[in-house]
Each structure stands twice: as C-alpha cells, then as structure tokens.
C-alpha cells in the first residue's frame, strides 16, 4: 500500500513540476524585460533540479542526485553572473 502511495505521489509531483517548467519556459520566452527572463531561467533550473531529484527517488539511482547537485551549482553561478551583467554591464571586473 505505501509503495503505491509513493508511486502516485511521485507521479503527481513530476506532473506538477512539468507544468511549472512549462510556465517558467513561457515566461523566459515572453518576458517583457531581461530581469523577468533571468528570473524565469532561475526558476527553470530549480524546477529541473527538483525533477531530477524526484526521478532519482523513483528509480533509486544516485546519478540523478549528483546531476541535480551539479545543476544547482552551475545554475547559481549562472544566475549570479547574469545578474551582475545586468547591473554593471560586465561580468569580470
């Protein structure tokens, strides 16, 4: 019984994360300003990270957790670099 509940809850969470990914992708494409696009990109990598974590729980493989950690690190650095570029016009001082 508990395995069935876990499977259904993982499926529902992956479905909702997919909808969130589509919403942030829409905002990234249609964003009126560059700040909106960067925020949508930030949300997109967080949702992708969470999707990988749920996939790792579902399959029981540790490679998905390592990929999620890598995406989290690179996504944070990319967001900081893009925000710095918008504020100052250059990334490296």
3D architecture notes:
- It is a multi-pass membrane protein.
- By secondary structure, this protein is mostly helical.
- It has a single domain (2-88), classed as Helix Hairpins (Orthogonal Bundle).
- Helix content is 87%, strand content 0%.
- It has helices spanning 2-30, 34-59, 63-88.
- The protein is elongated, with a radius of gyration of 16 Å.
Architecture blueprint of SSEs:
Blueprint: H1 2-30, H2 34-59, H3 63-88
Helix pairs in contact: 1-2, 2-3
Global geometry: elongated
Estimated helix fraction: over 70%
Number of helices: 3
Percentage of β-strand residues: under 5%
How far apart lie the N and C ends? Answer: 58 Å
Contiguous uncertain segments of 5+ residues:
none
Tell me the name of the CATH class. Answer: Mainly Alpha
Give the topology string: H per helix, E per strand: HHH
Mean pLDDT: 91
Count of the separate structural domains: 1
Structural class: mainly alpha
Q: What summary fits the major beta sheet?
A: none
Give me the count of strands: 0
Q: What CATH architecture would you give?
A: Orthogonal Bundle
CATH domain fold name: Helix Hairpins
Alpha carbon gyration radius: 16 Å
Subcellular location: Cell membrane
Keywords: Antiport, Cell membrane, Ion transport, Membrane, Transmembrane, Transmembrane helix, Transport
Protein name: K+/H+ antiporter subunit F
InterPro entries: MrpF/PhaF-like (IPR007208)
Features:
93 residues; Helix Hairpins; 3 helices; elongated
């Amino acid at each position: 019984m508990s395995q069935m509940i876990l499977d259904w809850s993982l499926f529902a969470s992956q479905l909702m994360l997919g909808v969130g990914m589509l919403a942030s992708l829409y905002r990234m494409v249609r964003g009126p300003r560059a700040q909106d696009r960067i925020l949508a990109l930030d949300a997109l990598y967080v949702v992708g990270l969470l999707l990988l974590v749920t996939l790792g729980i579902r399959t029981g493989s540790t490679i998905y957790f390592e990929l999620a950690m890598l995406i989290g690190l690179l996504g944070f650095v990319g967001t900081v670099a893009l925000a710095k570029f918008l504020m100052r016009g250059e990334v490296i001082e």
